[in-house]
Amino acid sequence: MLDATDQQYFQNLKHLWALFRETGEISPEVRPMIASSWMRSRDFHVDMTKPLRAPILSRPELHSLQAANQTLIDIAKPIMEKMHSLVGETKNLISLHNPDGYMLYSCGDEYYAEMETESLFSLGVCWQERYIGTNGITLVVLEDSPVQVYGAEHYCAAQHDGTCSAAPIHDRDGRIIGVLNMAGKDWSGTLHTLGLVALATFSIENQLTLLHSYRLVDTAISSISEGIVVVDQELCIQRINLGGEQILRAKKESLLGHSISTWFGSRHEELQLRLQKEIAPFSFAEEELIVGEHHISCNISIFPIVVEQHPEGAVLLLRRSRSINALANQVMGNRARYVFDSIITQAPQILNTIQTMESIAATNCTVLLEGESGTGKELFAHAIHSASHRKNGPFIAVNCASLPHSLVESELFGYEKGAFTGALGQGNPGKFELADGGTIFLDEIGELPLEIQSKLLRVLDSHRIFRIGGKTEKNLNIRVIAATNRDLQKEVRNHNFREDLYYRINVLSFHIVPLRERIGDVPLLANYFIEEINRRGERESKIISPECMRILEQHTWPGNVRELQNVILRAYYCSGKNDVILPEHLPDDLLHLLSNTRTPQPKQYSGEDTAQKEKIEQALSQCNGDTKEACKQLGVSRATLYRYLNYYNIQARTFKAKTKTT
């Protein structure tokens, strides 16, 4: 670094510059950096003696360039203005340039303001070496370090009465994104001037890094679906993300600067006290916030901000109660598993019912499903939900008959912390809350106690619930599907069911006919159930014999589809290693019920049929009733053989050889 107080040096510089102008020779006393710049300037044909002329951007071009560098300008501007206030007694111009030398912003002495008519100190002018010769801005970019150019070190004589002190500005990857320059007429104190400029660029770089980090954090916070609210020690909101705005149903502008103490009602004192004393995160579960006119139920995690053991505020993480409930529903599998195509039927009554259900599925009206136990009412409830706009929401099935009398209310409507002995410390949502945004299926609704029926009626009317021990209501967005195997009208007459509740749930009612009234579905369902078991791969696949299927079709099925499913499952396992389920594998009680069934009259066969029948009987006799061997002998598949057995009313087991005694 040169000694700026050495007047002899500056006089020598003028002599050395004049020698170069006249002879083209450069004295060893000239700094190598300056000597190289002089040579380049001469190669660019820059005139050393004429007034400086440099290209300048048009106004639209300047505005475009400034917009591209707006962040840099915004950060550098207050620092440059502070620098100017520190050196205000001297004639200095502080300018900000992009790496190509174009001036983006400047502030400085009136002396330079007057010279702006000369264009060199105007915004948008280019300070490249190729236009104005040796100068600090170009050398900073080439050297990537702070540079000072004194008087006659400038290539052009027009700059010999000033000094440039410039330093590079880097981004966080070390790339030069700008140059800060201070041009002065006073040569005294130039060492301190360069230090001031270097310190200013260091400050600018630090602020750029902080801004980048801030934007990364801001982007990360904004991308989080949960609400994030940052408050100071007075609980006033300093920052909130989009998720917070959505959860609180308010715009950022209406929240910033306002205290959150009003959100918590009487609990704000507890919040303030804990923030003063605790440094570990804590939470408020299922908190009912009051934000303006809205009552918002959410779970809040609170992270105190502590600086040097002094509380400075907190970060609040807000999660909708519905989000927590959604996670619980996902874990518990509370979703619909069936659609209308899952219903196995060819019965016109059921097909007509399905068609009507499909047309009303998209509505929000309450549905009542009536029918005997085992007819598949829950399957229809699943299908209605799956065909509605709520299909992605939860499906909560509640068997009202299985709820203990003392727990019905808490199971359905939930409870708050400390509502009763044994209550969970954080309270617990009920089935209705878990169903928010979806469907709740109240199976066996006729079993509900009368005192619960009145509360249920209020929920159905208002779509709002009070938890046990709660102080505020919670809004719900649910659809209710109820089911019963009772005659509710009779129950109303007997004062076992509220009449007003009956009419409230009986908006749309469907009667699911019993299996005995759609006997044609028995083979469809039986084969479906056996195929379902076969798909498990526990044993070799099995089929149901024609004799067995005839028996199934003759049964009245008081237990409906559920009974049929259980009979098929039992027969499958009782058939052992056999690949065909025979009548002997059916439950004894089912066979006993059919023991008095009249034997059908024998069919009359044609001559060809008679020959075919005898051929099959002969094969079965030779194979001792083994249908698999008989199929091989006859050259037909098992399915074909069983169709023949069914057609000719042949029972294969009658051909099994009796064990001989010796």
Main sheet attributes: strand count, strand direction, barrel closure? 5 strands, antiparallel
Distance between the termini: 126 Å
CATH class of the largest domain: Alpha Beta
Strand order within the widest sheet?
A: 2-1-5-4-3
Percent range of helical residues: 40-55%
CATH superfamily placement of the largest domain: GAF domain
Q: Total number of β-strand segments?
A: 19
Q: Supply the helix-strand structural class.
A: alpha/beta
- How many helices? The count is 26
Outline type: elongated
* CATH architecture tag of the largest domain: 2-Layer Sandwich
Task: Kindly report the average pLDDT value.
Answer: 85
CATH topology of the largest domain: Beta-Lactamase
> What is the C-alpha radius of gyration, as a whole number of Å?
45 Å
Question: What's the number of structural domains?
Answer: 5
Strand content: 15-25%
Q: Flag low-confidence runs.
A: 113-117, 595-601, 658-662
InterPro entries: AAA+_ATPase (IPR003593), AAA_lid_NorR (IPR058031), GAF (IPR003018), GAF-like_dom_sf (IPR029016), Homeodomain-like_sf (IPR009057), HTH_Fis (IPR002197), P-loop_NTPase (IPR027417), PAS-like_dom_sf (IPR035965)
Keywords: ATP-binding, DNA-binding, Nucleotide-binding, Transcription, Transcription regulation
Organism: Agathobaculum ammoniilyticum
Pfam family, one: Sigma54_activat
